[in-house]
Amino acid sequence: MSTRRGFEEMWRDLAPVGRSASSGGYFRQPWTSAEGELRSWFGEECARRGLTVETDGIGNQVAWWHPDAPTSAKGVLTGSHLDSVLDGGAYDGPLGVVSALAALDLLRERGVTPARPLGLGVFVEEEGSRFGRACLGSRLVTGATTWEQARELRDREGVALGDAVDAAGLDPSAGLLSLDRVGTFVELHVEQGRDLVDRDVAVGVASEIWPHGRWRFDFAGQANHAGTTRMEDRHDPMLTYAMTALAANKQARLAGQRATFGRVSVEPNGTNAVPSLVTAWLDARASSDDALAELVDAIGRQAEERAGRDGTALTLTAESVSGSVAFDADLAARLAGIGGWPVIPTQAGHDAGILSDAGIPTAMVFVRNPTGVSHSPDEHAETADCLAGVEALADVLAELVGPGPAGR
Q1: Is the Cβ–Cβ distance between 392 and 95 less than 8 Å?
Q2: What is the 3-state secondary structure (H, E, C) of 96-142?
Q3: How far apart are CA 264 and CA 177, in angstroms?
Q4: Backbone angles phi, psi at 308, to 5 degrees
Q5: Same-domain check for residues 145 and 274
Q6: Any domain includes 376
Q7: 71 in a domain, yes or no?
Q8: Are strands 212-220 and 362-367 parallel, antiparallel or unpaired?
Q9: pLDDT one digit per residue (tens) for the chain, 408 residues
Q10: CA distance linking residue 71 with residue 251, whole number of Å
């Protein structure tokens, strides 16, 4: 089977899973039926290639090719994630998994015999769309987060993470995926931006991930009647939130950074009532750790000042913060040299950043996104560029699993 045909068949098999008939977007939240179907699909694809999948107690998966290579030679792991944001796109995550399988096929077609094991992996809950912790699967396996810390996290319906994992037929007591045999991690991902479009190239290599995080703003006020309460008598947290959202936009624009309020919860959420509580989640990203801290401090300060004028109260909580990640520069240069690809930064978080922070030499390969749109049903990549990404990933993996040193 040709690489193109194999890629397109896998993509066609994945296309309907978790897809909304109304929007065309994807709802592939972790530990749901859609995610379970994706996990089964990955197992079947690995079995077709004669690989045995290991699934850990929370659903992370890995399958090894040539696992009996010399034990002194740590393996190379590639892959990504299969979950999506709410109403997300098809490519964010799955492109890296499908490309990993297709790259393995291509290596076999080329007659490559690895000198070290090659693993294909899938991490769960990368997006943090259900339990609010991005890259939760990789955070747990690297020890950046413990199961004791994570198990009581709750989704929007109040379901605890531990209960959701149990309901999915998984057993956390069975243990987590071990990364002891991983010497290098390479993640292919659709680019979430327009850098490669502007450069007019199909493939790039990552240099760094901007620091980023999620902060919860709880604006407390006083519920009251929308008709009988004079405007000057109100303690309306919606006003405080609205001005904070505008302040975040202004501060980010002035600093050349990123700030987004994309999720809001209102109580009692009645049309004819002044709210008692508005909870909003800020996603902030910046070019350095100091710049991120300054951005969030500025937004928080303006929110406090506005709360004082509105007679409301603000509680600001950092829920998930990831520092800047500089990928292994020597490894990035080595991989970029294979195809003459540009080395570019990314403002999006990835499992690769978590593994890099854990001390594993890590690289990312990006595939051009013609519009730059991501986390949306409009997310897209041309098949020709995807196939160029598969070729690039196969070239990278051939280099890393060959007879030379894997990590550098």
Answers
A1: no
A2: HHHHHHHHHHHHHHCCCCCCCCEEEEEECCCCCCCCCCCCHHHHHHH
A3: 34
A4: -65, -35
A5: no
A6: yes
A7: yes
A8: unpaired
A9: 678 889 999 999 999 999 999 999 999 999 999 999 999 999 999 999 999 999 999 999 999 998 777 656 789 999 999 999 999 999 999 999 999 999 999 999 999 989 999 999 999 999 999 998 889 999 999 999 999 999 999 999 999 999 999 999 999 999 999 999 999 999 999 999 999 999 999 999 999 999 999 999 999 999 999 999 999 999 999 999 999 999 999 999 999 999 999 999 999 999 999 999 999 999 999 999 999 999 999 999 999 999 999 999 999 999 988 889 999 999 999 999 999 999 999 998 899 999 999 999 999 999 999 999 999 999 999 999 999 999 999 999 999 998 755 443
A10: 52
Read off the tokens for 92.
């964010």
Q: How far is CA 334 from CA 206, 346, 350, in A?
A: 12, 19, 21
Same-domain status, 186 and 148: yes
Distance CA 296, CA 317 (A): 11
Is the domain of 363 the same as that of 300? no
Query: Residue 221 phi/psi, 5° resolution?
Result: -140, -150
Residue 76 lies in a domain: yes
- Where are any strands of DSSP class E within 146-276? 182-190, 203-209, 212-220, 224-225, 258-267, 273-274
